């Protein structure tokens, strides 16, 4: 039931966190620690997070979890129905169904070809023949139920495999979008920082008394501004400075 981590690495990672309510890799203690209820992550998870660090972001994991609700629902159903039948069982079921259908066809043909006895009303005879056909079909259907169930279970597992692939593709795209957004933020920071550095250099040369850095989406302020001689006023309002 569980997706193969080698074929579906991100999906496997997200489902493990969702199913077991695990913390992010980055939240695990650094010191040697063993907790039976919360064992350390396997090596493949650590390697995956090293390659894809945004998987540690709780908002991204939350969004990914919502995106695979169809997988979780199907997985729950298959857990109730059981493991995928082996190929031998499926092939044997198909052969048996074909045999039952062939036998039914022969029975129906025999019913159709049987002559109407003399003295029997035509309409009554047709009704009796129709009832015989109905009984034969019902008997054949009952006999095929178990074999059809095997085939249907196999088909559900086959569809589940496709569902896993589609879900992995969705998660890959989601991760790519998150990474691109992060790169965009870094690029914006670099552009803002270049402008701030230019102002800083001007202040060092001209001994500016007042510097206006408001509304520039600053995330941090270079410490060098604190060494500007003659600086009286520094406006950093309406930014995103962190304490």
UniProtKB/TrEMBL annotation:
<protein>
    <submittedName>
        <fullName>Outer arm dynein light chain 1 domain-containing protein</fullName>
    </submittedName>
</protein>
